Amino acid sequence: MADPLLSISGLEAGYGEIRVLWGVDLTVGKGEIVCLVGSNGAGKTTLLRAISGLVKADKGSIVIDGGEIAGGGPEVALSSGIAHVPEGRRLFRTMSVKDNLLMGAYLRVGEDKAVAADLDRVMTMFPRLAERRNQDAATLSGGEQQMCAIGRGIMSRPKLLMIDELSLGLAPTAVDMLSDSLKEINATGISILLVEQDVMSALDLASRGYVLDRGRITMSGTSAELAAAPEVREAYMGVA
Ligand SMILES: Nc1ncnc2c1ncn2[C@@H]1O[C@H](COP(=O)(O)OP(=O)(O)OP(=O)(O)O)[C@@H](O)[C@H]1O
Ligand SMILES: [Mg+2]
User: Fold this and answer.
1) What is the pLDDT of residue 239?
2) Is any atom of ligand 1 closer than 6 Å to the C-beta of 215?
3) Which of 108, 156, 204, 219 is deepest in the core (most CB within 10 A)?
4) What is the C-alpha to C-alpha distance for residues 222 and 230, in angstroms, rounded to an integer?
5) Ligand 2 mean position, distance from CA 159 (Å)
6) Is the CB of 44 under 6 A from ligand 1?
7) Which parts of the chain have pLDDT scores under 50?
8) Distance (Å) from CA 197 to ligand 2 centroid
9) DSSP state of 222
10) Single pTM value for the model
11) Residue whose C-alpha is closest to residue 45's, from 13, 72, 70, 92
């Protein structure tokens, strides 16, 4: 594996008295695409929320690029280079596509020129967003909303882009298009942590992966290793 960008060790987190994550260890190397798979309620979203400081880490460590961010909260995570594309995309529905994208750059005060250049780059990467730049986000199709949410993530100039449920509710053609965009984004040097229901497409995109089961990492390996593992095939692909 490449040098680590994100190193999580012994992470425990949850909601009040309810513990969801029990000693999670996970690493994303610089330049890697890593996927996280697991059944409903396994704690995938909670893990991403803990990394981005939205859920408090009760124990353990979250180090990004050498700096500890556990306990720092959302602004520390964002300014440390973490962008989070949330489950359900969470766009501002009555704001334009362009303004939604600019929300991703809200911490980049005094960088107007660079932000404008990045906005152009996102519009070039997603021509359908460029065509719809002044429309309300609510008018976008599901695939376009996911493009906008990913674009908003890139606007913070992250080192790590985390995406929760890339393909949920989207047509296969839209998923293919988004997968190509993620490869393009990754080729610019941004590492990606992908949470995905569709295990096949996740393993296709990622070079390594982790399986989360009831708040614990139960398996990890290269995508080829996981795709061949009987436990993964039975539990998540419906084949023996
Ligand atoms: N805000 C919350 N308050 C209390 N419990 C929560 C909250 N959000 C999630 N949980 C619980 O935490 C556990 C893990 O949920 P989480 O959403 O992280 O799972 P997930 O792997 O993302 O599932 P899915 O595949 O359905 O998205 C579940 O038991 C869930 O009920
Ligand atoms: Mg989830």
Assistant:
1) 65
2) no
3) 156
4) 14
5) 22
6) yes
7) none
8) 9
9) E
10) 0.94
11) 13
Q: Is the CB of 45 under 6 A from ligand 1?
A: yes
Q: pLDDT tens digits for 190-237?
A: 999 999 988 888 999 999 999 999 999 999 999 999 999 988 888 877
pLDDT of residue 110: 84
Provide the 3-class DSSP secondary structure of residue 211: strand
Q: Give the Å distance between the CA of 88 and the centre of ligand 2.
A: 9
Spatial separation of the C-alpha atoms in residues 237 and 17, rounded to whole Å: 33
Please list the residues that pair with 27 across neighbouring strands.
7
Q: Which atom of ligand 1 is nearest to the CA of 165?
A: 27
Full set of structural domains in the chain with CATH? 4-91+157-236 (3.40.50.300)
To the nearest 10 degrees (0 to 180), the angle between helices 142-154 and 172-187 is 10
Q: How far apart are CA 48 and CA 51, in angstroms?
A: 5
DSSP states along 119-161: HHHHHHH-HHHHHTTTSBGGGS-HHHHHHHHHHHHHTT--SEE
- At 168, is the secondary structure helix, strand, or coil? coil
CA 97 to chain centre: 20
DSSP 73-124: -HHHHHHTTEEEE-TT----TTSBHHHHHHHTTTT-TT-HHHHHHHHHHHHH
- Is residue 42 within 8 A of residue 217, CB to CB? The reply is no
